[in-house]
Specification:
single chain; 231 residues; alpha/beta; Rossmann fold; eight-stranded mixed sheet; 5 helices; 22% strand
Amino acid sequence: MKKNILIVGASSGIGLELARHYVGEGHRVCITGRNDPSLPGAQFFRLPITTSTDNLAKGIDGLVAAFKNVHTLVYAAGFLQRGSIDVLPDAALLTMANVGLIAPMMLAARLKPLAPTPLKLMLITSSSGYTPRPQEPAYAATKAGLAMLGASLVRDLGFGKVLVVAPSGIRTAFWRETDEDTSTMLDPIWTAEQIVALSSGPFKYKYAKILRNPARVEVVEKLDNAFAAID
């Protein structure tokens, strides 16, 4: 079955590699981001996420109106500003919160009642979501929150499968203009392949880490029955 797949945060990196895969399979794909990667076969919608939640809500409303009947939401957007909590400016904190949590919540809220089938979610978090780092307090909090969002939404029977994936550092443009050593980071194409494999097959909820040195996949939690996820 060909599906309508919305990938948020696909200007580069994992989101773009996932878009390439799904376009290649013949699905109808819409990608969002600040810059158009000009991917043949994919529709692009510019969705810059900044400090304004009002602008974000308007942008998401426009996106939902432009790309209808979404079967699968892939959320791969990320925004990292490093520094101790007293050093990070308000603009950085607001943008990280909007990118990391507010946008995926708004999208889930809008797409769920419009989906032709129970909405499938694929949420790409980070190892920062389970590894406390003093220079990443806000980023780590949003990544942990995104994982908890997925674990909570799976308890809503209005959603279909929920996959939460936490990669551990990927060689992408995300690290450009930083002093980060990317030599041991994960290859984005390989990582996208692992995410596609994790998303296939029958399950209701799956949480997996994609680790490096050596590169490997660790499934932390898996639920096969929707009712098993309800307390």
